[in-house]
Structure formats: C-alpha cells, structure tokens
Design a protein that fits this description.
Blueprint lengths: L10 H11 L15 H6 L8 E8 L6 H20 L7 E8 L4 H14 L4 E3 L4 H13 L4 E3 L6 H4 L4 E3 L4 H15 L4 E7 L3 H16 L3 E8 L7 H9 L4 E3 L4 H13 L6 E3 L6 H7 L7 E4 L8 H14 L5 H19 L5 H9 L4 E3 L2 E3 L11 E7 L2 E8 L2
Parallel strand pairs: 1-2, 1-3, 3-4, 4-5, 6-7, 6-8, 8-9, 9-10
Antiparallel strand pairs: 10-13, 11-12, 13-14
Helix pairs in contact: 3-13, 4-5, 7-8, 10-11, 13-14
The structure holds phenylalanine.
C-alpha cells in the first residue's frame, strides 16, 4: 500500500502546508529525505501556532505495515472527532505523521525531525517496542511527551519521565498466556520459538517462561529466529522431537503466519500461542488454515458488546470499511488521552502537558478504563482470542 499524506485535519492548513512540505511527507520516502527548512524560518513556536501540532511516528510501510496503518487510522478518527466538536482550547489538532518503514533507526530519525523542525507539542508512537525504545531517548532529551499506544516491553517507559504508554506491559501479558495455557488449555509442556531481533518477542518469551514455570509447567525447548528468516523447519523439527503440547510464538504476524504453515507441514498439530503481535488481518492471510485453534492475548475484542466498543467499531467500519484491530483501538485511545490531558493542562508547554498526562485517571477508553501508574504504564485487563474459521473470537478476559 502506498501512503501519501501527512494527516492534516483542516483544509486551510492542508493548502498552507502543501506549499511548505511539497510531496515529501510519508509517500514511502525516508524521513531523512524530508526537508522542512522553509517551514522553520517562517513558523513561530509551538504555543503560538494556530493549530496544536502532534507528531506521529508509525510503520506505514515495511514488515509491520498493518501496525502503523491501523494505529494511524485510530488516531486520525480520534482527531477528527475532537476537531468536529471544537478542538482543544479553541484550536484544532493537527497530526503530522512520518513513516519509519518498520525500522528502529528510521523511527529515531523521524522523531528527531518532528521535534526539531515541526513545533510539535507531543509525539504518538511507536507500536513496536524496539522502535519505541529507539525514539524514546530523543523525546526524553527534548522533553517532548511521548505516548506509545501499544508498545508493551517494560523498557519503553523506563527511558524517562516524558515517556508514557496506554497499554499493559509484557510481564503481565506473559502471565496472561501462561495462566491461560495452564488453566484453560491444561497444558504442562510448552516449546518457545522467539524472534531474537525484537525486544518485544524476547521479553514476552522470558516473562511467559517465568510465569509458566511458577505455575507448574515446563518449557521443554527454547528456539530462536530472526525477523528476516523465512525458513523455520530446523527449529520446528527440534521442537517436534521434544513432544510439547503447545508452542509459544511471541512474534509479529508475518513470521508467525509462516511458522504456523511450516509447523503443520511438519505434522505438528498442537495449538500455537502468541501475544498482541499477532493482531493483524494479515496473520490469517499469511498463515491460513494453519492458524486454526491457536490463541493469542491482545488489547480488546470487537465481539465485546460494551457500548463504548461497539460505537467505536461501527464508526471505524463506516470510515475505513475495515474492522478495527487492537492497534486501531489503541491508537484511538492514545489520541483521546492526549487530547484529554491537553484540556486538563495548565498551558500547552511540554512540561505542563507531561504533568497532565501523568495524572490520567480512570479515563473511559475503548480498551478499558485507563489510569497511568507511577511508572507511566496503564494497568488494565487483557483478552485472549481464539482463531476459528480465520476469525478472531473472544475467549476470556484476564485481570491484572
Ligand atoms: N506490543 C507490541 C510491541 O511492543 C506491538 C503490538 C501492539 C503489536 C499491538 C500488535 C498489536 O512490540
């Protein structure tokens, strides 16, 4: 999918910025290819802008493109709603999005660009933990509040007091899948197959292992791959020899889809287990039938009948003719929490805004009520979804 825009919520500004930005935003081009120097000369500081500018760093292209596209749509929908109801403090929100091509170094470059050249008051992003970890020091050093919608590795918010997230963290997510494997699937012997390129995958594999052993289970083999791998047969053959009852594959959807197919080709019919990194429509496109009767944890379920969720799902479907996955909901929630914090902030200085975000309490978000704790993480339940006939079906909710 080609992606050709910076999301501007207001036609006047669209015209204004088109002149400044030419065609350099997104369009699959590298953030470092952008040049906004003309904009710098003319534009006053953040608080004097006619709009409130928010930067977004997302993987709009590359191996995790659905993460970025979904998140972006969720944010865009939230900003449209906020602007239609008068904006924030009398100003419209303006979203400036840069594509990081699913690469950590590009996420860092994009964050630098947005902060140094675009007078943004805050950053939304990234989804993948390794990319949030790459951009967080840049946000922290410039004292720009950053909210990751859905990076779950603990290190993300440990990078400094300007870094927040609106999702749960992986020690909890690992425990969720360990409890589910032990108590619901009643399995005791699990194999692990982890992506060693990803902070998310290695973290989740470790947290699952700790919780699973604590609950009386054993990890009979722990194999690894890297995100560019396409052939997992040797790891899966070694796993088969250990006769596990399930395989934990805490990776992202592209690798997981391929792993599922190759596991079935080798005659492994046991369930595969995973985390929120599976939550993409592409998962089943790639893995097909091989994913039937597998389970993963995520942030919400579109099958939940709560009015808050159903209103969001129908608005999203109307807008994009697509179902909102977990990241779309998290993008929407992150944007709504940022806007709410702006409304509660004394001024729109980055410091005041940071204080306001830090005191977010019981915010009624789509994915649950969100309170940010002293570590700037959200404490909230996770859901477990089962793949049946190629669709994700709600199984259970696990409380923190
Ligand atoms: N939690 C994943 C990470 O930290 C990212 C992710 C979130 C993936 C939500 C899919 C859905 O890298």
């Amino acid at each position: 999918m080609s992606y050709k825009k910076i999301s501007v919520q207001n036609r006047f500004f669209t015209a204004y910025f088109m002149g400044l930005l030419l065609s350099q935003w997104i369009s699959g081009c590298k953030p470092h290819a952008l040049s906004l120097s003309q904009g710098n000369v003319r534009e006053p500081s953040a608080q004097n802008q006619a709009t409130i500018r928010v930067g977004e760093v997302s993987s709009m292209t590359g191996s995790e493109a659905t993460f970025g596209i979904s998140t972006h749509r969720g944010i865009e929908l939230a900003f449209e709603e906020i602007n239609q109801s008068g904006g924030v403090l009398g100003k419209k929100l303006q979203l400036m999005t840069l594509d990081d091509q699913s690469k950590p170094e590009e996420a860092a470059t994009a964050a630098t660009k947005l902060i140094s050249e675009n007078q943004i008051v805050a950053l939304l992003g990234e989804v993948a933990s390794s990319r949030s970890i790459a951009m967080a020091p840049i946000a922290q050093n410039s004292k720009t509040p950053m909210i990751s919608p859905s990076s779950t590795n603990p290190r993300v918010t440990e990078m400094g007091n300007y870094i927040f997230r609106v999702c749960f963290i992986d020690p909890f997510q690992g425990e969720v899948m360990a409890k589910f494997a032990l108590n619901d699937l009643k399995v005791k012997k699990v194999a692990v197959l982890r992506d060693v390129d990803s902070d998310y995958s290695t973290g989740l594999a470790d947290y699952f292992t700790t919780a699973f052993k604590k609950g009386g289970g054993s990890v009979v083999i722990d194999e690894s791959y890297t995100s560019s791998d396409m052939d997992f047969k040797s790891q899966l053959t070694a796993i088969r020899a250990k006769k596990p009852e399930a395989i934990l594959v805490p990776g992202y959807y592209t690798s997981v889809g391929l792993i599922a197919r190759q596991a079935r080709e080798l005659g492994l019919q046991i369930p595969l287990l995973g985390g929120d990194g599976w939550d993409s429509p592409k998962l089943v496109e790639i893995g097909g039938k091989a994913l039937e009767n597998s389970y993963f944890s995520s942030h919400y379920s579109t099958e939940n009948t709560s009015p808050k969720i159903q209103t969001f799902v129908s608005k999203f479907r109307q807008h994009y003719q697509a179902n909102p996955d977990g990241m779309a909901a998290m993008g929407y929630d992150a944007a709504m929490i940022l806007a709410d914090s702006m409304k509660r902030s004394k001024t729109l200085s980055k410091q005041d805004l940071r204080e306001a975000i830090a005191t977010t309490q019981n915010f009624p978000a789509v994915t649950g009520n969100i309170t940010l704790n002293e570590k700037r993480n959200a404490v909230k339940p996770a859901v477990v979804l089962k793949i049946v006939d190629g669709a994700f079906h709600y199984q259970t909710t696990i409380q923190p």
